[in-house]
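Q: I'm writing up a methods section and want to include an example of the input and output format. Could you take the sequence below and give the corresponding predicted structure tokens, formatted cleanly so I can copy it straight into the document?
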Amino acid sequence: MADTAPRPRTKRGLTTRALAVFGVTFSFAAILLSGSILFLAPKGRAAQAADWDVLGLARQGWSDLHIVLAALFIGFSLWHAALHFHVFKTLIFGSSMSPRGHRAEALIALAAVAAVTALALLQLPPASWLLGLNEMFKHAFLTP
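A: Here is the clean output for your methods example:
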């Protein structure tokens, strides 16, 4: 008679996939925080004149942190993409389960990125509205 008792699970070592996923997630969350603070921050000279800081960091500190976190996010994202390249390839070119792949979704996402990029470069709404809101926050600290 076979033993039907459940076997205790043994903890596996570190996995590169889990590390890549958590690295992308946590670095994105940190970039989101630093970017949000910078979005609301006054311009450089105004921030210095007002001795502006959030959580003990001045504007330049937040800017430096944002750049370093962005580089970390890029590294984790590239690593994640390399680990999951076969999934990406299957989504584009299809598989036996989904022979047509997901080309339409890929094209929609690409078009959205291209459109937002063009709107921002041409200073057109709604990108210009967001940039205007950013300027409003930056100048809000200039008036007493």
